[in-house]
């Protein structure tokens, strides 16, 4: 096992957590410049109307470094995200078991985007029963020689993120309407497979 380097992600996709699972330890990049329309502030969930994007608004500033990106709470995006997640997964097998815990970071009103993403990641890892040492970058390094660097992999704006990601298929809500998608938010995997989610990564 090698360490892996990842960007900060909001309810990141299943492949993101697969990378974490297979790493000896995890380094989260905080010193990069923030990029819009990526998993840094958005995730994809499957709803009755198809795939829906949930996006966190940020406070615009001349300071583009990710570690300094603040969350904009001037609109009721938190309640909208929670309602969207409830509507999408309310009838899944494990919704009642995990919903309160998985959305609990949203109610904490973290000032910085990376803080919210970290709280969400830690909550998800706990539910997946994955224990990893998580570190944060203190300065930017262009390339890593002794670690799997996945930063560019998840910096794509195009969905899905990893076109050849070979995930195990599992039963998804609305599978009678839509084909299986392997790159949805980790929420999709946990709500649909529950305690078996770790085995699917």
List keywords for this structure.
201 residues, two-stranded antiparallel sheet, alpha/beta, 12% strand
What is the fold's blueprint, element by element?
Elements: E1 4-7, H1 14-21, E2 26-29, E3 42-47, E4 50-55, H2 77-89, H3 95-103, H4 113-128, E5 134-136, E6 148-149, H5 186-193, H6 197-200
Parallel strand pairs: 1-2, 1-6, 2-5
Antiparallel strand pairs: 3-4
Helix pairs in contact: 3-4, 3-5
Question: Would you write up a description of this structure?
Answer:
With 201 residues, this protein is of the alpha/beta class. The protein contains 6 helices and 6 strands. It has helices at residues 14-21, 77-89, 95-103, 113-128, 186-193, 197-200; strands spanning 4-7, 26-29, 42-47, 50-55, 134-136, 148-149.
Mean pLDDT: 94
Rg over CA atoms, rounded to whole Å, is 16 Å
Low-confidence stretches: none
The count of β-strands is 6
The spatial strand order of the largest sheet comes to 5-2-1-6
Q: Give me the number of helical elements.
A: 6
What would you call the structural class?
alpha/beta
Major sheet details: 4 strands, parallel
So what's the overall shape?
globular
What's the gist of this structure?
29% of the residues lie in helices and 12% in strands. The protein is α/β, with parallel strands linked by helices.
């Amino acid at each position: 096992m090698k360490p892996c380097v990842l960007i900060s992600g909001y309810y990141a996709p299943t492949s993101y957590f697969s990378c974490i699972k297979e790493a000896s330890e995890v380094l989260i990049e905080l010193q990069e410049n923030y990029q819009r329309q990526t998993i840094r502030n958005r995730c994809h969930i499957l709803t009755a109307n198809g795939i829906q994007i949930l996006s966190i608004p940020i406070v615009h500033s001349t300071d583009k470094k990710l570690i300094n990106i603040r969350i904009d709470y001037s609109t009721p995006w938190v309640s909208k995200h929670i309602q969207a997640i409830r509507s999408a997964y309310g009838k899944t097998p494990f919704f009642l078991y995990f919903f309160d815990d998985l959305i609990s970071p949203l109610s904490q009103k973290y000032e910085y985007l990376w803080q919210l993403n970290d709280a969400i990641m830690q909550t998800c890892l706990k539910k997946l029963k994955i224990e990893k040492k998580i570190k944060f970058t203190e300065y930017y390094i262009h390339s890593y020689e002794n670690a799997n660097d996945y930063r560019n992999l998840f910096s794509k704006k195009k969905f899905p993120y990893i076109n050849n990601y070979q995930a195990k298929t599992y039963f998804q809500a609305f599978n009678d309407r839509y084909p299986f998608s392997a790159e949805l938010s980790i929420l999709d995997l946990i709500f649909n497979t529950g305690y078996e989610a770790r085995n699917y990564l």
